[in-house]
Amino acid sequence: MKHLLSIGDLDRAQLEELLDHADRFAEVLTRSVPKVPALRGKTVVLAFFEDSTRTRSSFDVAARRLSADVVNFAAGASSLSKGESLRDTVETIHAMGIDAMVVRHRSSGAPHRISEWIDASIVNAGDGWHQHPTQALLDSFVLRRRLGSLEGRHIAIVGDIAHSRVARSNIEAFTALGAQVTLVGPTTLLPPTVSPWNVGVAHDLDGVIGDLDAIYLLRIQNERLAEPLIPSNREYRDRFGLTAARARRLRADAVICHPGPMNLGVEIDREVTANDDRVAVLDQVAAGVPVRMAVLFNVVGHGRFDEPASSGDRAPSTEDTGTGNASAEDAGTEVLT
Amino acid sequence: MTTIVLRGGQLLDQTGRRSGDVLIDHESGRILEVGPGLTGDRTLDASGCVITPGFVDLHVHLREPGDEVAETILSGSRCAARGGYTAVVAMPNTDPCMDSASVINEVLALGASALCEIRPAAAITIGREGRALAPMAELAALGVRIFTDDGTGLQDDRLMRRALEYAGSIPTDDGTPIVLAQHCEVATLSDGGVMHEGEWSAKLGLGGQPAEAEELMVMRDIALARLTGTRVHFQHLSTAGSVAMVRAAKAGGLPVTAEATPHHVALTDASCAGFDPVFKVHPPLRTDADVEAVRAGLSDGTIDAVATDHAPHPSDAKERPFDQAPPGMLGLETALAVVLADVGLSIDDALPLFSWQPAAIAGLADRHGRPIAPGEPANLAVFDPEHTWTVSGAESSSNSTNTPFEGRTLTGRVRHTIHAGEPVVIDFEATR
User: Fold this and answer.
1) Which chain B residues contact residue A197 at CB under 8 A?
2) Mutant choice from B203, B286, B316 vs A, greatest count of A C-beta within 10 A
3) What is the pTM assigned to this prediction?
4) Distance in angstroms (rounded) separating the CA atoms of residues B242 and B221
5) Cis? peptide before B65, omega within 30° of 0
6) 3-state secondary structure at position A217
7) Which pLDDT score is estimated for A326?
């Protein structure tokens, strides 16, 4: 695949293959030298036009673990503040000779436009309200590990779905992997229609919570109070917050997810995050690097573990490079040893 | 005296279809003779073509004064002429705004050398700010007949009422009525909406404008037309609900008219799937059901005119993320072919929508949309219904290239256009 712009561009087989690759890279990360030469010689630019320390660092680490050269583009310090257009900015970066651009932007569709303007692989790290594909992949990765499979599982996504790129990507990923998805929230925080997706809608969390295999909590932003879309955080917590009482009605084997950062006392109570083993938030964070390695491997590299060397370069090897013995030239050699 | 003969075509006007040549006097700008076997000093081949009265566009953005990079009165008039238009109504959201005699006079002066007649519209309110009335009587004396705050709707109900009452009481020297035209959009409902609110905006994660943002203002202005008796013209109707309300209002005898754009009968919100802002427009592209309703409205007399809302934007303005790009698309050169193809009307049935009906609304019926007969002003289009061509923004006469029909192959194109006796388009190209 040349780009990763939207989960909806991937079919179930491609999603599962990315998750399988992430499993392999998770193993690589446990080695003494957690690095592979798969993207050696490739240049990956992290073009974050919207702030994000977490996602950007995660991509940065992932790219370096694959031996790519990483360039960090700081939007605030760039010529954008001098009025340079987005197109001019990305064309200038591209002219320096890059293979891939990881883009985060506050406007939905910005990565799509960029993919029309420059000939490089584009990975969407979050565009407006639209998509956050690698978040959905890491969430699916965690749920798959904890639940075994998403097939037939009932997952609720709770909160401000209307304005959430995480929600849109997760809806597509979870349903593609066979899960039954219910969107939970007040009508003001739901999209104008849910007809693009095969999902259910509930306005009463208590009515569904006992049936869930996983509950995915979205963050409430203060802008929603300003519009106003909800009367107060207090009322939101009352109706939709994962309080300790609600957590008790959630099944013992269910998984609790949140993309972070959490508003404690709004979408989830501190009591739950502190004591409940079902909370998978740290697993989600940890999953970011292997999942992003898998994405970069497939988008920037050729994504095949069993391929021999191409054009004289070393084959993408996930061998422990600490030994210094990469069996790169042998055609058809199993690359994972 | 230079005469031009349009030879070998069929004539089509209010009286119907017939064969014949048209002999035109360049100096007086009038038709000299109509009939078979005519000759003149210069011949324009019209074989296989339909000769019609030139078209009138009630809604174009010529961008001058203020945004001449996007378009000028001259370049816009070239687009108009190539589209078969012999008159266009220039929208007042220029910089400075067309809300004063000096700016109206500037537009009239620039229009004097254009390839079609430029009929300025003026703003209803000063600066289009929706607060104070523009000097409507002074501007009507300069020939303005259509007043609109287009680009935005006039939000204040009381002010819209007073504007209608005041405008309705202005006598005009030629007896043609003053019309208030409305861009129906309730700002509190459309705020933050960059496309139609519906299935596609939900999927794409873009803010949407619900149909009701347009329909509530249509409803209000129908009520105010009833209250005041002043003519209201609804611009670019885009929803099924709007069309239905106008149909009922007309059936009730109210003084309302309406227009629709080619893009609202050709394209839906699905076009936004690739986030290309060439498809961003206000009112937005809507659903299949809305497109069907607008087509039906054009076919059954509910909608009086096709008006392009030709809105040029320089390419760097449209090469931005969707929410940051300005709304609007080109339309003058592709209008007729798109409407014929997508509404499924014959040229005979479509012609009133392009020609004498908008001419009447614009107060131009004395010189545009006329029957093709000796003594009439020579404002004519010669249309080749078989000519196929591929739309290209680069090939457009506009200073801009933002056509939503890029790459589409169309059948039918205006071959020659005569404006006030002057051939301004010959063999599909502007003459100057």
Assistant:
1) 203
2) B203
3) 0.94
4) 11
5) yes
6) strand
7) 41
